[in-house]
Amino acid sequence: MPTSCEYARLRSRMVAEQLVKRGICDSRLLDAMRSLPRHQFVPEEHKPRAYEDRPLPIGARQTISQPYIVAFMTENLRLQPQHKVLEIGTGSGYQTAILCHLAGYVYSIERISRLAKMAGERIGNLGYGNLDIHIGDGSQGLPDQAPFDRIMVTAAAPRLPDVLRAQLNPRGGQLILPIGDAPAQELQLITRAGGRFTTRSLLGCRFVPLIGRYGFDSQTDSASFVS
Ligand code: SAH
After folding, report:
1. Best exposed site among 86, 94, 179, 191 by fewest CB in 10 Å?
2. Distance from the CA of 153 to the center of ligand 1, in angstroms?
3. Residues having CB within 6 Å of any atom of ligand 1
C-alpha cells in the first residue's frame, strides 16, 4: 500500500494532469481535490488505484465517479460558501465531502443504507459537521428542507423530475444531473429564475441509474449502465 506521502503525490498529479489540463480552473475546487483523501473513499483493494482517471467499484454494484466528472460537475455548479445544497446519490461520499468543503450546508440522500453509513463515517472522520445524510429515494428530493441553492444528482434519471426542479431556489437555483438511458446520457444544467427554467447541455456521460419513483425501476441493472 502507498504511504500517505505517496498518496499526496498521486493526488497532486491527478489534479495537474486530469483536471487542470482539461480546463478545470476553480482554485477552491482544485485545492479541495488536492487535499481530500480520495483513497479513503474506495474499498481497500482499490486504494492504490484511487487517483486513476476512471470510476471504481464501491460495492452494491455502484461506483465512485471519475475524478474529472466530479470536478466538472462541481465547477459548473459555481458553489458559494453560503449555499444550501442537496446531493442525490451519496455513494462513496467523496463528492459529498467536496460539497461540504465548498458550500454552507449539504443534505445528501442515498438509497443503499450500507453506503450511506460508510460515507457518513468517512466524512465525519475528516471533521465536516455541515452535513445531513438521509436514506431513501432521492428522486423525490427532500421537500421538507427545500428550497435549495444547488442540487446535484449523481445517478442518471430517465427525464428531469418536476419535483426536483420545484425544490430549487427561485432566485437563481441550479440543478445538475445526467439524463438518459445507458449508454447515451447527457449532463444537463438547469437554472431557475422565478417560474422560468433554462436548460443547458454540458457533456455526454455515463452514470449508474437513479432508481426510484421518478427514476428507473428497481429491476434496472446498474452494470449495463457502467459508470
Ligand atoms: N457521487 C457518488 C456516486 C455514486 S454512484 C460517488 O462518486 O461515490 C450513484 C449513487 O446513487 C449510488 O450509490 C446509488 O445507490 C445512488 N442512488 C441511485 N438511485 C438513488 C435514489 N433514487 N436515491 C438516492 N440514491 C440513489
Report:
1. 191
2. 8
3. 58, 62-65, 88-89, 91-92, 94-95, 109-112, 115, 137-139, 154-155, 208, 210-212, 215
